[in-house]
Amino acid sequence: MTEKIFYLNQEKTTLETTVSQVRKGKGKIGLSFPQTIFFPEGGGQPADRGLIQGERWWMQVEETREEDGEIWHWGKIEGREPVGGEKVVMHVDEEWRRLMCEQHTAQHLFSAVLERDYALSTTGFSILPDRIKIEVPCQDELSPLLLNDVEAKVRAFIRERLPVRVYWENACTRIVEIPGLDRNPCGGLHVKDTGYIGCFAIVRFYRKNRDFWRIEFLAGGKLEKAFREGVKTLDTLHTMLGNDLVEGATRLVEKRENLEEEVRNLREELNETRALLLENQAETKVEGKSIVRSLSCDFEDLRMIVKKLQEKGISSLLYNDKGQLVSCALSPSWGEKVGALLAECGFRGTRTPHFAQGKIENMAQFLDLLQKM
Ligand SMILES: [Zn+2]
User: Fold this and answer.
1) How far is the CA of 115 from the centre of ligand 1 (A)?
2) What distance in angstroms lies between residue 218's CA and the mean position of ligand 1's atoms?
3) Same domain, yes or no, for 219 and 158?
4) CA separation (Å) from 10 to 44, 50, 89?
5) Which of 20, 138, 206, 241 has the fewest CB atoms within 10 Å around its CB?
6) In a domain, 238, yes or no
7) In a domain, 233, yes or no
8) C-alpha of residue 60 to centroid of ligand 1, in Å
């Protein structure tokens, strides 16, 4: 059993202890200790991050998990391999811990307001890298007006600096209480009073399915970071598009549409010219005019050129270096012969007696057989 110092003294972010056990798995080392300041992931709250340092080695902690009362710290070791019984110093990443506590406590407050004033319960909670989401069972519509109200109430409770009390109801049940507002069993870590949350904003809400809504929010340092990044992105966009972003973006979209139209026209012209050149090179045989050629163009171009040659009364078989092939036979005998060869050389695609388009596995073999034919 690992002693959970993060419950006894949450402020402690450095600890000297000794290695109990060492494990290996998936290219990482797992370490356990008699006690730890690292909070393991659980109840929607991600695990702590930080560093564990021994003599001539250190480990950036990537995962912390609890298994049967033992807390395992996983990561890659720099330096020599640690051994049981040796001394270490642990450092928890304080900034990360603070951000997680802010989000988690904000969720308590947010869910409490939803429950108390709107009879909306919370059935799921998770902290994602760029947002925090809760799940709320509700078949009715959730209006922006209602959520604006909730947001305002949460902000008012933040300003009130309500205490966040944590105590053990019995040996197994840890209670987190914001007096008069919220009382829930919870194993996570929290700020001391609601004032430490700092700021709060609902950033998105949408219906997940018939029975559930998802509401996404940000609080404290995470909200400040998202705001700063948003302002930076806006500045960049203003530099690129001018003061009126909508007008600038509309201009860009129109320009792109015009360019695409131009590309389509140029392609049409180019393929017309290609078809004309091939028409001049086509051979006249018993079964009519035909041509077989390799072209350095994509599948769509091959299709266009074959169609143009068909209109000129020429059977054609065109392919590119990616093994893509399009053919159109105007005489049944040419179509039959080509069809038989395609089947022999691993052709995959659509094929009718006159037409084939798709990919061929063994192009060299196919061409060799075609030449002999
Ligand atoms: Zn909690």
Assistant:
1) 16
2) 16
3) yes
4) 18, 15, 17
5) 206
6) no
7) no
8) 26
Residue 190 Cα to ligand 1 midpoint, Å, equals: 6
pLDDT band at 361 (very low <50, low <70, confident <90, very high): confident
pLDDT at 171: 87
Give the Å distance between the CA of 269 and the centre of ligand 1: 67
Whether 138 maps to a domain, the answer reads: yes
Domain that holds residue 66: 3-92
Residue 104 CA to ligand 1 centre (angstroms): 6
Ligand 1 center–CA 44 separation, angstroms: 9
Domain end marker among 196, 228, 260: 228
Q: Is residue 57 domain-resident?
A: yes
Has residue 373 got a pLDDT over 80? no
**CA–CA distance, 288 with 280 (Å, rounded to integer):** 14
Q: Which residue, among 281, 272, 311, 141, has the nearest Cα to 213 in the 3D structure?
A: 141
Tell me the CA–centroid distance for residue 7 and ligand 1, in Å: 12
Contact (CB, 8 A) for 83 and 22: yes
> In this structure, are residues 238 and 249 in contact, taking their beta carbons and an 8 Å threshold?
no
Q: Please tell me the distance between residue 192's alpha carbon and the centre of ligand 1 in angstroms.
A: 12
pLDDT of res. 324: 95
Per residue in 232-242, pLDDT (tens digit) is 999 999 999 99
- CA of residue 306 relative to chain centroid, distance: 41
DSSP secondary structure code for residue 218 in this structure: E
CATH of residue 25's domain is 2.40.30.130
Domain count, the chain: 3
How remote is the CA of residue 59 from the centroid of ligand 1, in Å?
28
